[in-house]
Sequence to fold (145 residues):
Amino acid sequence: LLLLIIQLPILIALYQIFLRSLTPEFLTGLYPFIHAPQSISPTFLHLINLQNRNIIIVLLTAVAQYFQAKLGLPQAGTGELSQAERISRQMVFVGPIITLVIFINLPAAVGLYWLTTSIFSIVQQLIINKKLRNGELGKLNKAVD
Fold:
C-alpha cells in the first residue's frame, strides 16, 4: 500500500500533463533559453496517442497486474488457508478489476506508466522467486556472521 501511495503524485502529475499541459501556449516561456516547439506529438512510437483513452493499454495493465499479484503469493501448503491468505488470493482478481475501472477513463499515458511499473515488478519478483527456490537468499547474512 505504501508503494501505491508513493506513486500517487506521479500518476496525478502525468494525468495533469497529458490533460492540459502539452500545448504550444503552455510551453512558451517555460525555458527562456529554449524556443518552444511548433507542435508536440503525444504519440508513443507513433502507435498510441497518450492523451486519449486506450483500451489495449488498460487491458495489458490489468493482465500485468494479475501476474504481478499471482507471482507475489506464497505457495499454497496442504493445510487450510488462513483468512489473510484467502483475502490475498482474492485480491489477485480484485486488483486487476479495479485497475480496469480506474484506468478506462484516464489518458493512455497513465496506463502506460502503470504497465511499465508492473512489468518491472514482475521481472523483479521472478528473480526473487528464483533465488528463493535455489536457496541463494540469506547467504550474505551467513557470511557476515
In short: Residues 140-145 have pLDDT under 50 and may be disordered. The chain is about 65% helix and 5% strand. The longest strand covers residues 43-44.
